[in-house]
Specification:
By secondary structure, the chain is an alpha+beta fold. It has 2 helices and 10 strands. The longest helix has 14 residues, at 2-15.
């Protein structure tokens, strides 16, 4: 019986290979932004003016570390801070906080990234659970949430 168990385990272990799948699902696109991004050698070709805008600190707008800045078409400055998302006007006055920390609808524990919608009307925030939270740029109100269906690619 020990010989039978040994032979069975040997057969199973030798036939279970960690095969790598060479074909990818054609519906899944793989994007490697770091590989396709180039750093401009001369910023004067793409930037014509640099303006320093001091962001005013209030009890609601303390910034410990800026992770990302966005500039809207209305010249609002959106700041992804370590703790939250803040909106400022074009001269650095605090306007409002976008969303809030929590576990309810429209709330977040942490935000991984932010961007503007293609029409520039909304702020989209990606949380660690791959949820995309949609907020109004007018007042920071939570509007909607979606979770993209992401397939698994075999490498």
């Amino acid at each position: 019986s020990k010989l039978f168990l040994f032979l069975t385990l040997s057969f199973v272990l030798t036939n279970c290979k960690n095969e790598k799948h060479s074909t990818l699902n054609p519906e899944i696109s793989i994007i490697n932004p770091i590989q396709i991004t180039t750093e401009p050698s001369d910023f004067n070709k793409i930037v014509d003016t640099i303006i320093k805008i001091p962001l005013k600190v209030t009890k609601n707008s303390y910034i410990s570390y800026i992770r990302k800045l966005l500039l809207t078409s209305d010249k609002q400055i959106i700041v992804l801070n370590t703790a939250n998302i803040l909106a400022y006007d074009s001269v650095g006055n605090y306007l409002f906080t976008i969303g809030r920390i929590g576990k309810g609808p429209g709330e977040y524990i942490r935000i991984n990234d932010i961007c503007l919608s293609s029409d520039g009307q909304y702020l989209l925030a990606l949380d660690p659970f791959n949820r995309i939270l949609k907020y109004s740029l007018g007042d920071g109100t939570y509007l909607d949430q979606s979770t993209p269906k992401i397939g698994r690619a075999h490498v």
